[in-house]
Give the backbone structure.
Amino acid sequence: LTQFELPDKGGLAGFLAKTGRLVAASTYLFWTDLGRAYFAAGLKDEALNAFSAAIEDPHFADGPYALGVPGTRAQLLGIVAELKIAKGQLQAAMALYDRALALAPHDGVAARGRCQLLARMGRSLEAARCLGDYLAQDPDFLPGHFIRADLLARSGHLEDALKSAQVGRRMSPDDPQARRLVEQLEAATGRGR
């Protein structure tokens, strides 16, 4: 998109005239291009508006890839979800993550984003379950085991928290933080030395 200029005060019509881009059959490509340009320029509110228009376009569902942006449709939904989170629109972001996972059930970025959002919303047990589901698909995601252990401990599920922390510790036996977490959970469950 480096060949495109950002819209000036003249609005979209001026942008189209400057770039020569024809919007013909699908406005979807236009909105994704515009969203990328705004995002690259750090204009996140404008990017959110353009990307939101793109994911609501009827052509969005036509193919596996989000035209005009690198990645899949699920990833574009994740980008919009992150922008919504930054604006405090947590429920709308959750709906977008759910939509992304309906399109691509094994999309790790969307799955982790959804888990993080659940934790941010104070839904610790749901977030821990979400991370458990994610870790079943990607057991090598080391931070996930410790984050899950913390979420389970906050929810009062100390035995499950200890198991999760122990898995992480086995993966990283020399990590002093992992050792401390396991020791704290062992003490909390009465298994400490």
